[in-house]
């Protein structure tokens, strides 16, 4: 998403694609997503309980953007492949 501005009240699909050091897509043994909302609330999700697998190495979470400001996200994969993806996006309060 990187530095995008999204409207308050909309939804965002947060997604990640994991690959190994040879750029071959692989499934980590465990996958987590941490979200830090602008109001300080921290949400943690893990596969398979609350993240969707959309293909080999591909995972996503749909979230409702209910707080304005900067959202920070971190996907982390461990086990078969160790990888981290960090991003942020802005939720605007109005047009």
The number of helical segments is 0
Secondary structure category = mainly beta
Would you identify the CATH H-level superfamily?
A: Macroglobulin (MG2) domain
- CATH fold-type name: Immunoglobulin-like
Main sheet attributes: strand count, strand direction, barrel closure: 5 strands, mixed
Percent helix range: under 10%
Indicate the proportion of strand residues: over 45%
| Stretches with pLDDT under 50, minimum 5 residues | none
CATH class, anyone? Mainly Beta
- Gyration radius (Cα, Å) is 14 Å
Number of strands: 8
What is the terminal-to-terminal distance?
A: 19 Å
Strand arrangement in the largest pleated sheet? 1-8-7-3-4
CATH architecture: Sandwich
Mean pLDDT: 93
How many individual domains?
1
Large-scale geometry: elongated
What's the SSE pattern?
Answer: EEEEEEEE
Structure overview:
The chain is built from no helices and eight strands. It has one domain: Macroglobulin (MG2) domain (Immunoglobulin-like), CATH 2.60.40. The two termini are 19 Å apart. It has strands at residues 5-7, 11-17, 30-36, 42-46, 52-55, 58-64, 69-78, 83-92. A hairpin with a 2-residue loop joins strand 5 (52-55) and strand 6 (58-64). The strands form two sheets. It has a five-stranded mixed β-sheet with strand order 1-8-7-3-4, with no helix packed on it. Strands 2-6-5 form a three-stranded antiparallel β-sheet, with no helix packed on it. The protein is elongated. The chain has 95 residues and is mainly β.
């Amino acid at each position: 998403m990187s530095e995008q501005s999204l409207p308050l009240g909309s939804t965002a699909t947060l997604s990640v694609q994991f690959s190994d050091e040879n750029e071959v897509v692989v499934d980590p043994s465990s996958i987590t997503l941490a979200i830090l909302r602008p109001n300080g609330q921290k949400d943690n999700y893990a596969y398979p309980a609350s993240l969707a697998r959309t293909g080999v190495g591909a995972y996503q979470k749909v979230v409702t953007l209910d707080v304005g400001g900067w959202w920070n996200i971190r996907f982390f994969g461990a086990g078969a492949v160790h990888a981290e993806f960090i991003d942020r996006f802005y939720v605007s309060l109005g047009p």
